[in-house]
Design a protein that fits this description.
The protein has 223 residues and is an alpha/beta fold. The chain has 9 helices and 8 strands.
């Protein structure tokens, strides 16, 4: 039986990870986060004092990186060189480093190989920035989530304030605008909606409503 792939793309803070996880749980699909894999690579570079701003240096160090995924329900964990680093991957420093290393074609090929292997044998829902355009261009269903930079910053603030009491909404918003601009203009893995993707402005809906839109679309197509 043919496996079903669902791609959910969007900028930082649009809720794509949460939506993908909930949809996966309700449909019984496997949830995969490509963004966490990139973050794990960035984490490795920083923890090993590797110059991640050098594409050549990052390429030379990829052979030292072993990434495995652990899937339990809608929980997607990243095992980096036998260590579960999932809870260490959500910092501002990593966001910047991730944006930098994800521009490198060899890093992108490294990640693409990992996630495509997962997609071959599972009904999956995968979220990221170029899933529907590059990684899984033949996905049966594609969605692209958006929201204003202010809405995104306010959402992110609620998470980051727990670990960084000095962070401000304005600082986060500037980072989101800068990162999405860079990701929309870069050569590889550009942040752009696939021509056949369904666009959802998450500023107009709560998470449950977005989840229902995705599920209703999938179920309706199957009828």
């Amino acid at each position: 039986m043919k496996k079903i792939n669902i791609a959910i793309d969007g900028g930082a803070g649009t809720g794509k990870s949460t939506v993908a996880g909930l949809v996966a749980e309700k449909l019984g699909y496997t949830f995969v986060s490509s963004g966490l894999i990139y973050r794990a690579i960035a984490y490795y570079a920083i923890s090993q004092n590797i110059d991640y701003l050098s594409e050549t240096t990052m390429q030379d160090n990829l052979h030292n990186i072993n990434i495995q995924t652990k899937i339990e329900g809608r929980s997607f964990a990243i095992i980096l060189n036998k260590k579960d680093v999932t809870n260490l991957l959500h910092t501002q420093e990593l966001s910047k480093a991730t944006s930098d290393i994800s521009k490198y074609i060899e890093v992108r090929n490294f990640v693409t190989a990992i996630v495509r292997d997962l997609a071959k044998d599972n009904n999956i829902i995968m979220e990221g920035r170029d899933i529907g355009t590059v990684i899984l261009p033949d996905a049966e269903f594609k969605f692209f989530l958006t929201a204003s930079s202010r809405v995104l910053a306010e959402r992110r603030f609620k998470d980051l304030i727990k670990t960084d009491p000095f962070i401000t909404v304005e600082e986060i918003e500037k980072g989101i605008i800068k990162r999405d601009k860079e990701d929309s203009e870069r050569e590889h893995g550009r942040l752009v909606a696939a021509s056949d993707a369904i666009k959802i402005d998450t500023g107009n809906y709560n998470i449950e409503e977005v989840v229902n839109i995705v599920i209703d679309t999938v179920k309706k197509d199957k009828e």
